[in-house]
Amino acid sequence: MFSKLLIANRGEIACRIIKTARRLGIRSVAVYSEADRAARHVRLADEAVCIGPAAARESYLAIDKIIAACQASGAEAVHPGYGFLSENEAFAEACAAAGIVFIGPPVAAIRAMGLKSESKKLMEKAGVPLTPGYHGDEQAPEFLRGKADEIGYPVLIKASAGGGGKGMRVVWQREEFFAALASCQREAAAAFGDDHVLIEKYLERPRHIEIQVFGDTHGHLVYLFERDCSVQRRHQKVLEEAPAPGMTEERRAAMGQAAIAAARAVGYVGAGTVEFIVDQEGRFYFMEMNTRLQVEHPVTEMITGLDLVEWQLRIAAGEPLPMRQEALAIRGHAIEARIYAEDPAKGFLPATGRLVHLALPTESLHVRVDSGVEAGDEISPHYDPMIAKLIVWDESRERALVRLLQALADTRIVGVANNVGFLARLAASPSFVQARLDTGLIEREHDFLFPAAGTEAPPREVWLLAALAELLRDREYAREEAAASADPHSPWHWRDGWRLHGAARRAIVLRAGEHEQRLWATPCGQGFLLELDGQTTPVFGELRADGLLSADLAGRRVSATVVPAGEKRHVFFAGQSTILAAVDPLHYGGEGGGAEGGLAAPMPGKVIALLAEPGARVEKGAPLMVLEAMKMEHTIVAPQAGVLKAYRFAVGDQVCEGELLLELEGEAA
Q1: Contact by Cβ (8 Å): 200, 133
Q2: What angle do CA 88, 90, 92 make, to 5 degrees?
Q3: What is the mean pLDDT of residues 229-254?
Q4: Domain closes at, from 583, 612, 640
Q5: Which residue in 371, 421, 364 sits closest to 393, CA to CA?
Q6: Does 421 lie in the same domain as 320?
Q7: What are the pLDDT digits (tens) for 292-349?
Q8: Whether residue 162 is found in the same domain as residue 26
Q9: Catalytic annotation present for 37
Q10: Does 122 or 318 have the greater pLDDT score?
Q11: How confident is the model at residue 472 (pLDDT cuts 50, 70, 90)?
Q12: b/e map 80-111, b = 16+ CB within 10 Å
């Protein structure tokens, strides 16, 4: 086994590898960019080496810098995690040339599976079922559209070197093909440095089921069962589970053997994932093989009781597979939810900012949390916006689902937009509860998952708890002021509302969307009397510095978390999250909403395409500009018909969130 291991990655996977290495007595070396100087994986590692500026191409993707860090630290092996250089054959070759063990498959296997079009040809020879499509080298747009016409719409355009849902577009009609192709190629070139694409028949209502495989240097191969990753948005996985609901033993064995055949065809060693698309009748077709560990590997670990990172390290050190196929078994059910800094209501746009408050569920036999950040850390625009992976396990899918909903209710994030509420609705949606799974589930359940904002007022308890927290926070501030003063015992520091002719009342005004409430607070002993809608409620409680509130509402004991962030008050109560605004009765300026008309940058990013000519008349909904953030494209469209007067930025420019991107003169009514 190795004595020192370098982790050529960041975030939660780097933290995970460091923990496994420590358990095995292996010293860890983290690498980090200047933007990640204070990152969690840097704090956890035994050593850390700075490898360059924030831009991934100048740091985490810079092969020479990673090799230099290995040599400077004396690391004998490098684990690439997933993403960045994990499937880069040039990196694997550079490691071999430098005498450093690459924790991954042989270079030949990476090369064979790295291009989807080439891997399809290999799989066809190996007898692995393939989806109908075109996987050749000719890339002329007219030729590709001709192939799409032959296959029949809808078709899926996929980046040949792609992964993670990037560089993929579904085309429903012939007229949409060229625009979708151009967008797909731009995204593929930006993410993978290769705009080569393939065309496949798009199966409607398919399931995405993948098989975890492992091989060693002694010629042994096993499959560690399946994961269902059908619940996706933008072709990226959101919820994953193992085993796949409704999977029969016969189909599991058939898919497992097909995955083994795929791995054997390329002489595979280490951890890999063979991904299949499965129709509603159970027929499965090879999609691709990811020659690395996957983000969703924890669900496999939870149902097998194995540590797949440990397996990777042992196999890379030349040891045989720890177990043979007949010894592997499934126990229980596991579900993983990916918690991202993103805004589901705005098309899942990535979000950036500081994590003002981050409370994740307590880990146990049933709950696991993999995270690369802590409270106070920044979610930057430079890398993937994942905050954490939440994984739950229990004896059955039904019980695991209950665990997931409770764990999501225990997850509290303030400071960046996030998808926790969306995940809770998704896990409670009829289709997911009933295991009616396919890649279109989120679109099918749209009305359930995206309720109209601001239509329902928060419960009475939420208003009371927010007001009580405000009063307790003010009281604590008064105590701190008194303690710091020259006369800490002066009665002028007291804020108990005492008056010569009765207690004073204080107004607390809170707003939630369209709803605004004015609560009147009167001090009463150690607590307060809060008047809301003509009804008075005696309240008292204790507020911790982290926002945890233990409250008594007219004799009813409850717990909540109330976290202030600017004028906002984030209230987490009874499994729900509510954002209120504290309104100054004398002044209310709000936080601003950016430029009107939808022409402000919805997130920080880079301009990668201008789609109309200045001076041209455009229709409402016409695409005007394409931004790229975190390797994903977002198209700015015209909010109304009018004349495009001018662009304020050129291709290649970086823009900040909220900046006005262009000038559009609307037509007169």
Answers
A1: yes
A2: 75
A3: 95
A4: 583
A5: 364
A6: yes
A7: 999 999 999 999 999 999 999 999 999 999 999 999 999 999 999 999 999 998 889 8
A8: no
A9: no
A10: 318
A11: very high
A12: bbbbbbbbbbebbebbeeeebbbbbbbbebbb
Element spanning 342, H or E: strand 342-343
Do 99 and 181 reside in the same domain of the chain?
Answer: no
Q: What percent of the chain has pLDDT over 70?
A: 94
The sign of the CA dihedral 462, 463, 464, 468 is: positive
Cis, bond preceding 639 (omega within 30 deg of 0): no
| pLDDT more than 90, % of the chain | 73
**8 A C-beta contact, residue 263 and residue 289:** yes
Question: Residues 298, 304: contact at Cβ < 8 Å?
Answer: no
Long-range pairs for 554-558 at CB < 8 Å and ≥24 separation? 558/461, 558/465
**What is the overall mean pLDDT for the chain?**
91
Contact in structure between 27 and 3 (CB atoms under 8 Å): yes
Question: Do 314 and 284 lie in a common domain?
Answer: yes
pLDDT for position 593: 35
Look at residues 561, 583, 605 and tell me which one is the last residue of a structural domain: 583
* Res 191: pLDDT: 79
Q: Model-level pTM?
A: 0.82
Domain tally, the chain: 5
Domain of 190: which CATH number? 3.30.1490.20
Q: What is the pLDDT of residues 415-438, one digit of tens each?
A: 999 999 999 999 999 999 999 999
Structure tokens at 630: 């975190």
Distance in angstroms (rounded) separating the CA atoms of residues 557 and 461: 11
Does 610 map to a domain? yes
Q: Is residue 16 part of a domain?
A: yes
Residues 317 and 247 in one domain: yes
125-150 burial, b if ≥16 CB within 10 A, otherwise e? eeebeebebbbeeeeeeeebbebbee
Residue 281 exposed, middle or buried by CB count within 10 Å (0-12, 13-18, 19+): exposed
Q: From the candidates 16, 227, 292, 403, give the one annotated as an active-site residue.
A: 292
Residues 179 and 327 in one domain: no
What average pLDDT does range 515-540 have in this prediction? 94
Q: Which domain holds residue 167?
A: 132-201
For residue 597, CA distances in Å to 297, 337, 560, 656 come to: 43, 34, 38, 17
Residue 397 CB partners (closer than 8 Å, separation 6+): 241, 245, 333, 335, 435
Alpha carbons 47 and 38: distance in angstroms, whole number:
13
**What would the pLDDT profile of 586-599 be if each residue is shown by its tens digit?**
544 433 333 334 58
Same domain, residue pair 577 and 619: no
Whether the predicted pLDDT of 125 surpasses 60: yes
Any idea what DSSP says for residue 307?
A: -
| C-alpha separations of 453 from 352, 456, 515, 579 in Å | 22, 8, 11, 12
Q: Which amino acid is at 107?
A: V
